Each structure stands twice: as C-alpha cells, then as structure tokens.
Amino acid sequence: MQKNEFTDRLKETSPVPERISPESIEKKLEAQKRSRISVKRRAVSAAAAVALVVGGSAGYLYKSGYFDKEYVPKTKSIQYEDTASQQGTLINSSESGSGTNKTYKLSGLKTLSYDELGDYIKKNYQHSTYYTSGTDDVFTAMDGISTRNSAITQEAEAVSDGAAADNSDEEKSADYSKTYTQEEGIDEADIVKTDGKSIFYLTAGHIFAIECDSGKMEDHLIDFKELFGDEYKASGAQEMYLDGGTLTVILSSRNSYNYTCWDEDRSSLTNLSLNQPTTNVITFDVSDLDSIKPTGKYTVQGSYVSSRMADSRVYLVTDSNLTYCDTYEKGGIPEFAPIYTVNGSKHYVSSGDIFIPEKTNAPRGYTNLSLIDTKNKCLPIAVKSFLGSGSEIYQTAERLILISAYYDYEADRTRTTLTAIDTADGGLEPIASTSVDGYVKDKYSLSYKNNVLSVVTNESDYDAISYEMHYDNYLYCFDDRLTLLGQTESFGKDETVKSVTYKDNYAYVVTFMQTDPLFAIDLSDPRKPTIVSELKMPGFSTHMRPFTEGRIVGFGNTANEETGRTTGLKLSVYDNSDPNNVKELAKAELTADTADSIDPLYIQVYYSSAATYDEKALLIDPEKNIIAFPYCIHDYRKYESFSDYSTTTGYRFYSYTDEEGLTLKGTYSIKNEHDLDDNMQDKDFIRAAYIGDTYYLFYYCGVISVNAESFEKIDELELKTPYDDETIWYDDEYMTYD
Amino acid sequence: MNTLTEMPLAQRAVKGDKEAFALLFKQNSDTQAFAELYRYVYEELYYYALANLGNEDDAADCVQDTALDAFTGLKKLRDKGAFHGWIMKILVTKVKLKQKEYIAARQTQSTEEEDIPSFSSGFEGVEIMDALSSLTDKERLCVSLKYISGYKGEEITKLTGIEHSTVRSLLTRARQKLRSLLSGEEE
After folding, report:
1. Does residue B9 form part of some domain?
2. ipTM, 2 decimals?
3. Hey, are the CB atoms on A735 and B93 less than 8 Å from each other?
4. CA distances (Å), A131 to each of A48, A63, A416, A553, in order?
5. H or E segment and range at residue A524
6. Which range scores top for mean pLDDT: A447-456, A671-680, B98-107, B135-144?
C-alpha cells in the first residue's frame, strides 16, 4: 500500500477489521477446505428500487407456496425415560398422543407464527443493521440460510421415472472402492465416485464420466452447457453421489430473489431484487454413458454446507442470509423465511418448519435442511430451517446433528450450538438443541450410539497479560434429547485436538502442541466419561479410523519434539484391544533427507500430503489390506550458479499384518522437473480408487491407471474440455489473468 | 533478484517473483501460503474497498469474498508474477457489484451512471469521506487505484477497462475536488 497523505487519512477513519486479518482468513480457508462450503456471499438490502408496487395478499396462499402453520409434533411410539429433565418449550401443543404414545416435545427449540417470527427477528436484529438509507426497517443479516408434506406431494407428479433398477451386474463387480464414510449406511459426497464400471470425476469445474476396462479408460464430458445452457454452470459443482444408475450433483450458484420492501417514505411497497448464494441438487440418469440425461432438480437458498445420502435420499444443508423487509403485515408475504424452488415455483419454508434454538446469540441467517428424493425428480420430502448458521453436520441412521459455532458476547467465549434431528423414520423431526463451551473441530468429534451423543470440544482462553493462549479439551455426553449427562476432566492441556475416532465404547483423541498424546476415553457410563490411557508420541495424526479388530490406523505428520514444527509424514497402526493400554505397533515415516554430494548453499526438501487436510485422499480398505496415501516430495536446491527444483508426487501403498507390521507394497510416482519460469502444473495426487486389480490415481484434470500388483502404469487420461480456454470468472466481466 | 536477500518469501512473491511464489506454496500448506501472500495486500484491499464504498462492513465483506475467491481460483492464475494485479482485479469487480446494489437501492431518473451517487457513508463529518462522497464512482475508482495501490494510468486501464485518456481526465477532475487532501502529490 502506498504511503501518502491520502492513505494516512483513510487509515485514520477506520482500522482494518479483525475478521479480515490474515489469521482470520486462514481459518476461514481451512474451514472451507474441510467442509467444502462454497464462498459465502453477502447481499445488502436497501430501501427502495425501481418502483413496482406489489399487491399484498394476506394469509394462506397455497399457490404462493407458504404456510403459516403451527408446528405439530410427531407422535412416536417409543417411550422415553427421564422426561422430568426435559424443558420443553412447546408453543403449539396439539398433542394427539394416546396413552401409549409420547409426542416429541421440543427441547431448547421453539417455533413461532410468521407474525411472531417477524417481530422476533426485528427485535433481535436491530443492532445488526448494515445499510440504512432512509428507513431503518430494511436490513439483511449476514454471515452465514414447509410446507406441509401433503402440500408438496400434491404438486408432485405421480410416478418416478428414471429410477434405476438394481443391476444384477453390481453383485459381480462389488470389488471396487467406496468413499470413506464416518457412519455405516450414511453415504458422503465426494469428487470421485465409482460403481465398478465407470468412474465419475469432478475436477477443474467439470464432471467427467470415465469408462474403465481393466485400466483402459475413455472419458465423456457431462456437458452442462449443452444440457442446461446458462441455467446451471458446471463450475459451481461441489461434489457428487452415485447410487444405482443415478448421479446426484450438488451445485452452487447465485440466483436472483425478489423481495417486497418499503420505499424511502414508507408509503408504498416496491420490488427489490437481490442476488443470493443458492444450492442446487441435480440428478442424472447415467445408466448409459452415451446418453446421460438429467432427471430432476431442486433449488434452495444458501451456500452449501454439507450433505449425506441414505436410501436414495439426500440430506442437504445450506446456510442462507436472512432478509427482513418489515412488509409481512402489509404485503402478506413472509419475506424473512427461507426460499426453496420446486418445479420452477417458489416456496417459503412454513412457520411451523422454522425453528429457533434457545441457546445461541442473535443468529444472522438460517441453516436449511432439505430432504430430497433422488429417485423422484429431486422432490423435497421435508424442508426445515433453523435460525443460526451451521458449519458442519454429523449423521447416523437415527440422528442428524447440526453443529454451529457462535461467539457468546456476555460470557466472552466461543460456544457451539448442537441441534438434534430424528431421522430414524426417513423424515426430519427436530427434537432438541443445546450449546456447549468451546469449539468442535469437525464431524469426527461426534458419535451417537445407544442413545448417547458424545462430543469432543476444544476451548481457548487468551491471557492478555502474558499474551498466551491456553487450551482445554473435554468430552461431553448428552442423552438423546441433548440433556447433559456427564463430561471428562480437561485433558491435553494447552494442546489442540488433531483427530478423533470412536470404536465400541471408547473415544480416541489425539491432541498436539509439541508431542502427540493419544487419549482413550471410556464411554460405558455416559455420566462419567473417563480417560483411561494416554500414549505419548512425537508427531500427530490428522486422521484416525478403526482398521481391523483391535487395530486403529492413523495418518498425519512427524514433528520436531522441541518446536512442534512438522517434519514429514507418518502412518501408524495402534493396538486398542486393551484401551487401558494403547500401544503403537507399527509406523512408517517419510521425513526429509537433505544430504547432497555437491555442497549446496541452500537446500529445502520436505514432504507434504493432501491427506493431512482431506481424509478422503486416503485409500484404506481393511478387507483388501490396503492403506494408501498421496505424497509430494519437494526438492529445492540453490547452488552458486544454478538452482534445481523438482517435485515427486505419487501414492504409496502399504499393508499391515501383526507379524510383519507395515509393509510397503508399492509406490506409483512421477518426477516433475521444471525450471523456475515454467508454470507447468505438478501432478499432485488427491484421490485413489480401485476397481478389481487396478488402481486409479487422480490429479487435477487427469487420472492414471496402475496395475495393483506390479504398480506399472496402464493408461493415463488428461481431461480436457472444449471450454478450456475460457477464463470467465464472473458473470458480467470477462477477465484474463495475464 | 538475489534470492538470499532479507526480504521475506511472501513479499517477494507478491511483488512478482515467480520463484518465490512457487517456493512459498511448496513450503507451506496452500492455505498458509495464501495467508502469507494475503498479509502483504490485505490493508490495501480494505482501504481500496472502504474508499469506494464508504461502509466498513461492506468493505470488509468485499475483501473477505475476494480472498476466498482468490484462494479458490489460484490454480487459474497462469502468471504467478501477477498475483497483486490479479487479486486487485477480483476486488475491483466485487466493489463494482456492490456499488450496483447501492445504485439499485436508490430511486433514480438519470441514465448517466456518473451522476448517480452511490457512495454510502456513515462517516459524516470525516473530511476524507465527505470528500470522497463528492466524487463519482469512476473518479473514486481511479483515485483509489492511483493513490492507494500506486498504479499508473495504463495499469488502471488494464484493471478497469476505462480508456487511458478517460482515466487521465477522471483523475484531473477528482484531484480538483480533493485538492486539499492531496496537496503535495505528484502526477
């Protein structure tokens, strides 16, 4: 930045806000990488626009697609123990339960009518007005987005076509890798998906279908321009599911939404159009790769947070802005409710489907949860919204937990809201919400089992006197209505959580600052979760998962014990058959060896791996005994008269047996030479999959097939599209970066 | 350039040293490397946005969006020596889009974009902000690119698409309006 009087004066007006400091940005990028949230955009709502008076329509308007209906709790025939501790705030008490049934009383959550919701928002958002131009009533809260089932099905078309029948072929070719999922039966989306015959790969803003035959590959581009024109841009695609012959793509976009708001004099209503981040779910029939057809689509407000799939239904979570125009009374349309689109018509989430968690500070948006039927044109089975922005979800066959961090100004600390939704009957029934001190790293920190939810948290405390940051870690146990049962004492003092995994009745947590203690925590009595062992080692795992019985695999970094600086990569196998005495049985390390015959002035050699921040880059298959990770060796040497720079990238494949420990089965690698002016892209591997005896290794815009025995290359595809020369970045502007 | 100088890697990378750029990304995870690059531009990004929008929160939003977009699009950056100009261009576009939203918010009869005031200032009484609000959007654009980022005329044209001669006259008009604040500035 230039230094002159102009800039001096500017600097005096305002310091750079903390949330855009390099540290805050780095954190946001990390979070984005983890959960693949597409860029959160903001919208400013303003007072008036081109005059266009919109006639008001009051009350229920089935055709406009919103319902001011009360929340009716579902009846369920399972008895709950310990109802005395439930603090239900049941606003709408239409209980139809008979003597043997219990209804879901909401705990820590409430719903309001549209009128009440409008007032609630107005009251709680007064302080977050961003843009006031004449009227104080219009503002958009930023940062972070029901119709009754019968209403939706009435609009739905009757029969599902395009649903793929089960292929009997699938039984034969079950010998292929699948996306690693945290919980059984709950599929997670990814950029690589295979059904044993074809592989679908999402890279560089395009989706390719790759036909595979023992390593020979042929690619077909799924051409969004041809299929959709400008309606959907492939560059917004985030990740995919593959289920039978149906490919489900989650795609981000920015769409225009019309709002009715007051003009400057507050005398009449005008129309305002705002661009907001939007998430789309599109399904394709991919049973015939030569004619791939779209079979359904669904659109909802908000940027993509996460999703899961079970029984051909997608659970989609988005995070949307809240726009409040104070026109509900006059105009009769609940502008502040989130919007989703079905068959081209717009629906506002009904008031009975909008939930307000009690324990959170004034939330600045909605987390929207849509349950989509991919076998029936992506019609939504249910849409529920929660005030507050979600950052991650955890899901099992019975529960979906929304995780949302917020800053509690009164207590001056970070807290995390947890909201529990019952998914056991194939629906979405919110039950409870609570909050816990501290910060939850990611979905692996949670486990729901035997009606108990365990959560590992990290709390930080900044001591302004000594300029030191202090950390504490805890594990909490909640019952299935999120009442706190018990917690551990603080462990891993002044260290941060690096990885967590759960197996049987134990949680295994790795914390790290300079060394890596691996804690085993006994959860058999949820009122007293107890730390039973602590294994100290150098380095730390960034990801752990159960391997075979009594064995846990961990992947991460080696580190210098004095400084905590990472020095390389490490693969470990632990013995947790006796959790009171966890042992490290085997390890394989890749650390730098910087010896060189010519005495260099300057050498840097080090190892990195995409798997340290993206656990889906690992290929771990206990049945086939494969443990594989991608790596990159960076080798930079500067001599007096020349410099030498190369990288080697590849995948290393190990197997583990108790007798022989970790054995390196083979490596496939590429040496990327380049002089420093060359902008050649290294082939950095990010995914590996197998079909039968062939490994497929993926890098940016390409894939290599390798024989699983000899590790010799069979084939390579460099994926190109007819659109590669386009460098369009924004809709309205053509930008080149040269 | 002597790569064994004192200047930090990231600073060299931002200034156009491709070697330093490549090395920075090899030495660190991509988020860390990006944060290091960002450290050398973020103030400039913020004050550019603030000077053009007049609103701290909107300015911070634009910078944040720019950083996220830039990180996501890093692989598309063909010329690694052009980081600074490239990230500025993303910000310039985002600020323009935000200004369009301001304009849409105000009723207007005029078709001349230059006459539409779209500066939003909560800084009444603050001299520099008052002065900036007296400029048109395009004048503000040129002035901030020149005095905050130090771009010359041709570079401003490349970043914004405004013809060089127009840039010159916009700067002249703006300087007249900002006379008291820019005393002592050379062309």
Report:
1. no
2. 0.87
3. yes
4. 12, 33, 29, 52
5. none
6. A447-456
Specify whether the CB–CB gap between A316 and A303 falls below 8 A: no
How confident is the model at residue A195, as a pLDDT? 94
Q: Tell me, what's the pLDDT at B125? A: 67
Q: d(Cα A284, Cα A296) in Å, to the nearest integer?
A: 7
**Whole-number Å distance between alpha carbons of A586 and A560:** 19
Please tell me which of the candidates A46, A49, A727 has its beta carbon nearest to residue B76: A727
Residue labelled with tokens 């089960």 = A166
Single out the residue of A294, A295, A163 nearest to residue A223, CA to CA: A294
pLDDT over threshold 70, residue B3 = no
pLDDT the model gives residue A151: 25
Copy the structure tokens of residue A569: 């990569």
The residue type found at A175 is D
**Tens of pLDDT, residues A165-192:** 343 444 444 799 999 999 999 999 999 9
Cβ contacts from A onto B, under 8 A:
194
Whether B73 is covered by a domain: the verdict is yes
Residue B161, helix vs strand vs coil? coil
More confident residue, A724 or A452: A452
**Nearest Cβ partner for A25 among B38, B89, B123:** B38
Contact B68 A28 (CB under 8 A): yes
| Nearest Cβ partner for A48 among B43, B44, B105 | B105
What mean pLDDT do residues B120-149 have? 83
Percent helix, percent strand, percent coil in chain B, to nearest 5 = 70, 0, 30
* % chain A with pLDDT above 70: 78
> Structural domain tally of chain B?
1
Min CA distance, A677 vs chain B (Å)?
7
> Residues with Cβ < 8 Å from B125, sequence gap 6 or more?
none
Partners of A574 in the beta sheet?
A552, A584
Picking from A32, A272, A676, the nearest residue to B68 by CB comes out as A32
Answer whether B102 sits within 8 Å of A46, measured CB to CB. yes
Return the residue of B nearest to A724 by Cα. B76
Q: Which residues of A47-77 are buried (b: 16+ CB within 10 A; e: fewer)?
A: bbbeeeebeeeeeeeeeebbbbbbbbbbebe
Look at residue A201 in the predicted model and tell me its pLDDT: 97
Q: What is the pLDDT of residues A281-315, one digit of tens each?
A: 999 999 999 899 999 999 999 989 999 999 999 99
Find where tokens 């307000």 sit: A356
Residues 131-170 of A with CB under 8 A from B: 131, 133, 142
CATH assignment at residue B130:
1.20.140.160
Please give the model's pTM, rounded to 2 decimal places.
Answer: 0.68
**From A29, A604, A645, residue closest to B71, measured CB to CB:** A29
pLDDT band for position A361 (cuts 50, 70, 90):
low
pLDDT value, residue A730: 36
User: What is the structure's pLDDT at B8?
Assistant: 82
> Looking at the domain assignment, is residue B32 inside a domain?
no
Query: Mean of the per-residue pLDDT values for chain A?
Result: 79
Residue B59 lies in a domain: yes
Q: Hey, which residues 32-91 in chain B have their CB within 8 Å of chain A?
A: 32, 34-36, 38-39, 42-44, 46-47, 50-51, 55-58, 60-61, 63-65, 67-69, 71-73, 75-80, 82, 86, 89-90
Residues of A in contact with B77 (CB under 8 A): 737
pLDDT in the model for residue A54: 21
* Cβ-defined contact of A42 to B150 (cutoff 8 Å): no
Domain that residue B75 falls in: 41-177
pLDDT at A386 over 70: yes
Contact predicate A422/A398, CB 8 Å: yes
